[in-house]
Amino acid sequence: AQRGAPAEWNGVGATADGHAVNIVANIGSVADARTAVEAGAQGVGLFRTEFCYLAADDEPPVATQRSAYGAILAPFTGRPVVVRTLDAGADKPLAFLNMGVEPNPALGVRGVRVSFDRQGVLDRQLEAIAGAAADSGADVSVMAPMVSTASEAAWFAGRVRAAGLGRAGVMIEVPAAALSAREILEVVDFVSIGTNDLAQYVFAADRMAGALAALNDPWQPALLRLVGMVGEAGAELGKPVGVCGEAAADPLLARVLVGLGVTSLSMVPAAVTGVGAAVAGGSLDACRRAAEAALGAADPAEARQRAREALG
Ligand code: PEP
Ligand code: MG
């Protein structure tokens, strides 16, 4: 448990001095949705839709997609849910997309890149999401994975609005996107940082390679500096900046992320209570001091140590 944090979380996503931080869950199934609600999540920060289709040989019809998404959204009537469009490719090949073999799939046609020459797949998915949003009454936003540039973000936001969906965002998980956070936030309503892929691409270290796990440590100061850049852009433009990678599930790191300007933390349901309590356990200023301390560290171990000391 976190020193200084209350043993129980009261379910309100905020620092001790009332700065709002959404404490939301990552889900991919009806079972996850139920677990997230039971855990006290305020909503969903990442619904990984590709998990519904890993076994599909053909593109599921819109009606099938609509009812699959609707069943997962049902427990979230009136609550915020961020639905991510298909993140196929690399570690998640989808049979129905016939993606072919690439020598370097993590750097290949994956995520939103699949949609550029198959816009119909995206538009049908967005139609199904819009239907499921209406069926469930959930407060749905949609975001794209693996966006690299502001023009890709603008293109995606255009498709989302054409589908009649209200809010469009993108994931920040390619270093170029983090470096263009301001330009991206000018054309979308929010961003969410995928620290798993962002670390992989920043350190040129395959996230599945156990031997490179130390480079993929979310406490790496270089990764935290990029998060801070995105946080600053969000604050300047007055738009939400989330984190939905594993980093958000670490109660100590969660406070550092808040200090870097992150306004929403999305995580495995099991981490919700601990992170909610940790964020509530101190002020926004304390989070900022912890962030400042971590940014100046030479390595992940020192960043952790400095953040812990700063939070007393
Ligand atoms: C991430 O990359 O951090 C992320 C949340 O997306 P996924 O783990 O599904 O690639
Ligand atoms: Mg990712």
From TrEMBL:
E.C. designation(s)? 2.7.3.9
User: Which positions does UniProt annotate for phosphoenolpyruvate binding?
Assistant: 48, 84, 196-197, 207
Q: Which GO terms describe its cellular component?
A: cytoplasm
- Any idea which UniProt keywords this protein has? Cytoplasm, Kinase, Magnesium, Metal-binding, Phosphotransferase system, Sugar transport, Transferase, Transport
Q: What is this enzyme's catalytic activity, as reactions?
A: L-histidyl-[protein] + phosphoenolpyruvate = N(pros)-phospho-L-histidyl-[protein] + pyruvate
Which metal ions or organic cofactors does this protein require, according to UniProt?
A: Mg(2+)
Q: Is Transport among this UniProt entry's keywords?
A: yes
A GO molecular function assigned to this protein is: phosphoenolpyruvate-protein phosphotransferase activity
- Where Mg(2+) binds, per the record, is at 173, 197
- What does the record list as GO biological process? phosphoenolpyruvate-dependent sugar phosphotransferase system
Which intervals hold domain PEP-utilising enzyme C-terminal? 14-279
Family to which this protein belongs: Belongs to the PEP-utilizing enzyme family.
Main function: General (non sugar-specific) component of the phosphoenolpyruvate-dependent sugar phosphotransferase system (sugar PTS). This major carbohydrate active-transport system catalyzes the phosphorylation of incoming sugar substrates concomitantly with their translocation across the cell membrane. Enzyme I transfers the phosphoryl group from phosphoenolpyruvate (PEP) to the phosphoryl carrier protein (HPr).
Q: What is the name attached to this protein's record?
A: Phosphoenolpyruvate-protein phosphotransferase
**What is the gene called?**
ptsA
First and last residues shown, out of full length: 234 to 545 of 545
